[in-house]
Design a protein that fits this description.
five-stranded antiparallel beta sheet, alpha+beta, Nuclear Transport Factor 2, Chain: A, 5 strands, elongated, 5 helices
């Protein structure tokens, strides 16, 4: 066998080896692949130098209400009036307010939360407490936690900048009702009661007072 033939066989072996190595490292292409367009014909969708799009949905809003909904638009307007306003922080505050106000009502001590209540809501709470006391009933309750919390609706009066946000709560607590003789007539120390409430809070945006007031309650 001549030297030229041997040299060709060696080169062919090296080529086969390199092909197998490339296949193992890069993988193989299967199926139809669209050939790349020449640079001058490539459209915006085919370019690799993607542009960074500024703006986009506000996750602080769209995490809680559908994008483009009336509630989302109202929340966006609140933020324009008061750039420091955060929906997430509001909901955390609402969670704390729910526990504080609910327990004050359960224990018959509305005075400590009166600054956070609209006058009509405060009076309604006081009327129920007076009615309970008139019947000789006493309440013993302990707050366990908030099982569910969801932003239901948001509105903004563009004329007055008064904002309203409605939140649905599902709270858990132990709740015992005793009569005048001290006998338990409802609940138990071990049974956890679920309390469902829909509360609406209001505040004038863009003012120095950061406190929201509870203006309506329901289920």
């Amino acid at each position: 066998m001549s030297a030229a033939v041997i040299q060709l066989l060696v080169l062919a072996g090296i080529a086969i080896f390199l092909i197998l190595r490339l296949r193992s490292v890069l993988g193989t292409r299967e199926g139809f692949e669209k050939p790349p367009l020449p640079a001058e014909r490539a459209g915006p969708a085919d370019r690799r130098d993607f542009e960074v799009i500024e703006g986009g949905p506000d996750r602080d809003i769209t995490d809680h209400v559908p994008e483009g909904s009336d509630a989302a638009q109202a929340l966006a307007r609140m933020k324009r009036i008061e750039p420091g306003f955060s929906v997430g922080e509001f909901l955390q505050g609402a969670r704390g307010a729910y526990e504080m106000i609910l327990m004050a009502f359960e224990h018959g001590n509305i005075d400590q939360v009166a600054p956070f209540l609209d006058q009509d809501v405060e009076q309604a709470f006081r009327d129920v407490i007076v009615q309970r006391e008139g019947q000789g009933l006493s309440i013993q309750s302990s707050f366990v936690g908030v099982r569910e919390l969801a932003l239901v609706d948001a509105e903004l009066d563009t004329g007055t900048d008064m904002a309203e946000i409605t939140v649905r709560f599902v709270g858990e607590m132990t709740h015992i009702v005793r009569n005048a003789a001290g006998e338990v007539i409802e609940g138990s120390e071990t049974e956890i009661k679920r309390q469902r409430d829909v509360w609406t809070f209001a505040r004038k945006m863009g003012t120095g007072d950061p406190n929201w007031k509870l203006i309506a309650t329901g289920e």
